Amino acid sequence: MSTTPQGIHSLAFRVMRLCNPSFPVDPPFRVDPADLFFGEDMFDDPLLASNLSPLLSTHLSKSTDSSDMSFADRYLLHHPSDAMGFSGLLLLPQSFGAIYLGETFCSYISINNSSSFEVKDIIIKAEIQTERERILLLDTTKSPVGSIRAGGHYHFIVEHDVKELGAYTMVCTALYNDGGERKYLPQFFKFVVANPLSVRTKVRTVKETTYLEACIENQTKSNLYVDQVEFEPAPHWSVTILKADGLLHPADSLTAGEIVKPPILVRSGGGIHNYLYQIKLSSSGSEQVKSKRSNILGKLQITWRTNLGEPGRLQTQQILGIPWSCQEMELQVLEIPSLINLDSPFSLHLKLTNHTEREMGPFEVWLTQNSANEEKFVMINGLQTMVVSQVEAFGSTDFYLNLIATKLGVQRISGIMVFDTIEKRTFDPLPDVEIESNNEAKSKIIANLACVWSVQRRSFDIFYITCGWPPFSSDDPELCHYLLRRG
Amino acid sequence: MADPSATSDPLTNQFGSLNDLAHDLASLQDLAMLGSWRSILDKVSRARSLGLLSKPHDHLIYLSYNVLALTKLRRFTDASSDLDSLHDFNSHHYKYESYPQLYPSRSGSMVPFSLRFIHAQLPFNLGNRQEGLDRFYLLLSFIRRKIEEKGSNSLQESAKIWRKRENLVLHCLIGHHLGAKEFNVCLDLIRDLIDHDYLDPILISKLGYIQMQIGDIEGAKGSFHRVETMLNQGKNEGYSSLSEVEFRNLVNRNKALVYLVGKDYVSAVREYEECIERDHTDVVAVNNKALCLMYLRDLSDSIKVLENSLERVPTVALNETLVINLCKFEILCFLVCPMKLSCLWWFIQWRSLANYFGFAVG
């Protein structure tokens, strides 16, 4: 849309947005002579078929004769694929269309002298104006146009990478001499830039690995061919894209040089495509790095193509992971025995890690006593306090806690306390651990612990994965209770 | 051997001319080749009223031309009514064996296949796309049953023609799905054709155009490379019977598209010029070259290229796409006022250019 100024100007601008052309499609009413001259089952008779073939080829060759000035091509099929109505002719875009963030705005600008005399000393400028900035696209001051004869015209093509949403105005101006008078012609062309995609992310962390799920939604009016979606990790992180296996499209098994690999085409107006990334610390040994890392995971870089390969590119903002809490001392369970029997001592293998820059310890480790609302059935077997030596900066040490369970079934080990004897500080770094104590007479139950950080609560959720189950009798009250608890 | 009796089978004799197939068919055909659709309507109407059509197959062939002419004149509702007068294509009324006196020892359907094709195509022009698709898919199963039937009865020539019809319907379907931007369906249909060894270089090129349209440039390059390999290996299966010139031009045009998409318009123009040098009626090369010239800011040359082709080969060059492009160039060059073009735009919209412009240009 242009707002033409008042007053009489010799010059005028016309602009046309230059996006890629397209292939028009229109299946035509065109026939094969064999489908028109006689009945469809005519060729059942081989004698007839041989009689008719020369007649048909005469008429087909007439239609393909390029010196023939008839309208045969609009009536007869020249080649079978003519029926598709898609010849490879390119058509210029019929309207301005929609323009999206990340695309390149390209425009043809034509300036015409509609007066009957020459126009001189012309300076032409084209500028893009948005809410935030003004960008000069064209300025002929340095390479002057000079003059335009009566009825003459000049052409330019300008380009601008669209990086801002909202309203844009392209201002074309011409400063010129019109029979001694210096005139100024501004013309304004407005358009709006919309957002082509929305990207939603979800982050989950399992132990040392963070998973990022990204969902890309197409908000444009046309299908988007997704060229590339790349996750650029922040420093010290490495990323692997995870794809579903075993879902190969048959075309994937075509040999090299074969064609028709199914494209990732996201349909218009709300179609989505999902990506899953696995993100890990690349320098795994460095405790220093671990303690300093922020929760910035990285950015998604998305490139797509629309009509005839028209490219677009966007980058998301930094995607954040779960905030890393800076624990000074971390206690981890390394191993729990697979079989824990009632009233029999067992060892809990623990590792104490120092995430600070200075040496810490020595430490004392104990279990807290029974509290009013909780009776404990797992306790330290032997000396109630264990001494653990100093741990150097960013170092770790492992030790065994000798425990005993005094009740059958699933029991908690809770309240493992770590006390720094020098700094006189207590760390409470290990949430409850569940174990299962069995009657020794029963056969083995193999238990695995899986710990998952919950995104919302940041606490351990612990569940068992149990393989195998012993024969049991329903008159064992402890076992029944356990089974009921397990639901 | 001609049967001397009065009820001799009119279709067993040698066919020297079209008139042996149906009453005055040669004249109908000539009119169609000239695009004289109104004259065809007149001729059919006269033949019917004067009782010149003595045999059932004559009526059917005349009906086919009538319906086709109506579609060409964009009288789709009339065409549909005319077709509906047949009620059921598979009726025994349209079988040779129902008229043993007229067609002794002949059996099968005397319905020209184009009637079934037009019947499936018409709903699209009447705004009922779903009906059209249903009809085409039903037609496709009908054709496939026929192919099986002919195959099991060892009717090889007949099976061959029915396979050609299967191809026609598949191509129509691809076109209709493409028009609705159902690209994945198109790719599946084309893949299906190629998997069944239908290796037509034009089809594979069109696959490339579709891949390009959706933005899969690498896929398109792969398809074009395949076509070029077929040219270099001298492979041109019987499907498309491309001449040497047509094949070479196809390869050049494909190359030009890759340059165009890569914004190397100079190389694209060079490819198209090679095509035009070889065949000045290659209107796709002419049109697309003009577009490239525009991207090179050479709008005056764009206009010249299109106007020249309209003058030299009007019947080939005169198509909606080319004329719309030319109008846009002329508007940009201030050669035409948009308001004065309103009539032209109207004509373009109604696509009756072929009938109204004829040979007059410039």
Automatic annotation (TrEMBL), chain A:
<dbReference type="InterPro" id="IPR055429">
    <property type="entry name" value="TRAPPC13_M"/>
</dbReference>
<feature type="domain" description="Trafficking protein particle complex subunit 13 N-terminal">
    <location>
        <begin position="9"/>
        <end position="193"/>
    </location>
</feature>
<feature type="domain" description="Trafficking protein particle complex subunit 13 C-terminal">
    <location>
        <begin position="337"/>
        <end position="428"/>
    </location>
</feature>
<dbReference type="InterPro" id="IPR055427">
    <property type="entry name" value="TRAPPC13_N"/>
</dbReference>
<dbReference type="Pfam" id="PF06159">
    <property type="entry name" value="TRAPPC13_N"/>
</dbReference>
<dbReference type="InterPro" id="IPR010378">
    <property type="entry name" value="TRAPPC13"/>
</dbReference>
<dbReference type="Pfam" id="PF23647">
    <property type="entry name" value="TRAPPC13_M"/>
</dbReference>
<dbReference type="Pfam" id="PF23643">
    <property type="entry name" value="TRAPPC13_C"/>
</dbReference>
<comment type="similarity">
    <text>Belongs to the TRAPPC13 family.</text>
</comment>
<protein>
    <recommendedName>
        <fullName>Trafficking protein particle complex subunit 13</fullName>
    </recommendedName>
</protein>
<feature type="domain" description="Trafficking protein particle complex subunit 13 middle">
    <location>
        <begin position="197"/>
        <end position="318"/>
    </location>
</feature>
<dbReference type="InterPro" id="IPR055428">
    <property type="entry name" value="TRAPPC13_C"/>
</dbReference>
From TrEMBL, chain B:
<protein>
    <recommendedName>
        <fullName>Trafficking protein particle complex subunit 12</fullName>
    </recommendedName>
</protein>
<dbReference type="InterPro" id="IPR011990">
    <property type="entry name" value="TPR-like_helical_dom_sf"/>
</dbReference>
